[in-house]
Request: fold
Amino acid sequence: MTDIVHSGLTVLDPTAEGHPAERELTLRHKTLTGLTVGLLDISKPRGNIFLDRVQEHLVELGVYVKRYAKPTFTKPAPVDLRHEIAITCDAVIEALAD
Amino acid sequence: MFDKGWTDGLPVVAPTEGRVQQMLSGTSRHPSEIVAVIPPRLIECTVEKVAINAVMAGCRPEYLPVVLTALEAVCTDDFNMHGVLATTMSVGPILVVSGPIVSKIDMNHSINVLGHGNRANSTIGRAVQLVIHNVGGGSPGGIDRATFGHMGKQGFCFAEDQAGSPWTSLSEERGFATNQNTVTAFTGEGPRLVMDQKSRSADSLTRTLAESLLGTVSSRVVMGMDAMLVLSPEHMARYADAGWNRSRFTAELSSHLVVDADTILVGSGDIEEGLPTDFAGLSLPKFRPGGLLVVHAGGPAGLFSAIIGGWINGPSGSEPVTKEITP
Reply:
């Protein structure tokens, strides 16, 4: 438990006291042509319409597209889904919509 | 402490070691015991961390078991605190306390029950939100993306008036005994008033309540979102006079909470929001079965009740969660 002295008063730290691990960003791709791009629909209304258009543009650029969807937009993507995207795709685009 | 990002914007009580030790005297649980995994960062939170935040919120030690149980409730997968934080809708955890502990810790179930002025009501919900903020990292502008929010997100906790109700309580309705102390967590907006000062029959009042409930969240939303109805003593008296119990009330109210789907289809009334046309010709209930939680509380005078609109329900959203308070 961390004690913090402020203005002569010692108080206990109400936070988790943790420090998120810092990770370097994955190197950006110079081009998407020939790569596999995952399109993740978070399952909000009309997200599919938006992603359909994104897919059209990507295919024109010579990108191989794989589609994914979260079971519900109200919860984080399940670990298995994130893992599948990570091992299958070179990049991912996540779509919010309404 | 404000500069360190530890507060909800209001002044807090400094959590000195002495005050935290005193707070911990309110529970028999060990300070190092893990209470819950707090979203959104999914941090294991100890009783001691909760106690620190409870001191900051202004709680008395005897409130701590309620705070601990409320945290256990909102940190379940069913309640989905992560989603409640992240949504742009203006909702937060609404806590309803039931059982003998209500009088033991002097909670308010009467005048201004959904407002300010009672220490337990004002600080228990605040302590829960401070833990979410400080331990879980769920803060406005961060994971909390609410378009508006509401003042109840500072902490929204009130007590059920069980002694004054002729009905079974919300807690009993949810499977607990009258003498059990419970917290029910519900995801909700701020409350709005329903006025009916003229109905003297249970049937007439029920129709008024139904008319107002049909507009909850949006008149074009059916079944997907729950609501909480807080019935005041003067409105409850109509049902006591008529000899209606909770089951009769629920059945009668439900019969009026039916929507002609054709009136809320996409494009009907020149409104682009609405149900897909697949629903044409159907009659649909406004709420899913069990999707309307009814609580008795409020001051003795006033022919009003209150509606607290909910959020996305079921496994894809948030389920109400009731837990027994343990010492």
About this structure: Residues 119-134 of chain B form the longest helix (16 residues). The interface with chain A takes residues 1, 4, 6, 14-17, 20, 38, 41, 43, 45, 48-49, 52-53, 56, 80, 82-83, 86-87, 130, 134-137, 312, 315-318 of chain B (CB under 8 Å). Chain B is about 30% helix and 20% strand. The longest strand of chain B covers residues 304-312.
